[in-house]
Design brief:
alpha/beta; Glutaredoxin; 6 helices; about 180 residues
Length: about 180
């Protein structure tokens, strides 16, 4: 039944996006995803320190479509997903002034995060998350790290993923494309 519902959601979303819908269909986030935030909720006030030393706050992100990618160098699923994020999302939208993508590395030191980005050959910005305070603003203690949060121009959470699942990743790409082009 769950596969049928997922298929119907994907089919409806694809058809709706084709028809230039005015809003993103609601997605129910399974409880086992471990999120403590909800779709439609405003993003909390946060500050991100990037590996280049620049600091970005959520107020700086208003008016932009934002993708927060939660990651860590020790995470094998993150490593599997990151090349897809680089190629299918970042390379496509990196020059769009209305789009921001940040990888947020869970509780690792600056030198390790920089090396991780180089090893993964990603060019999108990485932010530090000492003590995983940013991560635990979105996810429950003990929840797994591989996840993405998409935020609309008003600062509302509109889409969330967990682990790397091709169908969910494709939906996320479609949501980002729709938000930027719709």
């Amino acid at each position: 039944m769950k596969k049928l519902l997922t298929f119907l959601f994907v089919a409806l979303f694809s058809l709706s996006a084709f028809a230039q819908i005015k809003e993103i269909p609601a997605k129910e986030i399974p409880e086992d995803y471990g999120y403590i935030v909800k779709i439609g909720q405003q993003i909390p006030d946060l500050e991100f320190k990037l590996t280049d030393g620049k600091t970005v706050s959520t107020s700086d992100l208003r008016g932009k479509i934002v993708m927060l990618q939660f990651t860590a160098s020790w995470c094998s699923v993150c490593r599997k997903e990151m090349p897809h994020i680089e190629n299918d999302i970042w390379q496509k939208h990196k020059n769009n002034p209305d789009f921001v993508l940040m990888g947020i590395d869970m509780d690792e030191p600056l030198d390790k995060v920089k090396k991780f980005g180089q090893d993964m050959k990603i060019t999108y910005p990485l932010a530090l998350d000492p003590g995983a305070g940013i991560f635990y603003t979105f996810a429950a203690k003990g929840a797994g790290v591989t996840r993405n949060v998409i935020i609309d121009k008003t600062g509302k959470i509109v889409y969330m993923t967990r682990l790397y699942k091709e169908d969910e990743f494709r939906e996320m790409v479609d949501v980002i494309d729709f938000l930027l082009n719709g």
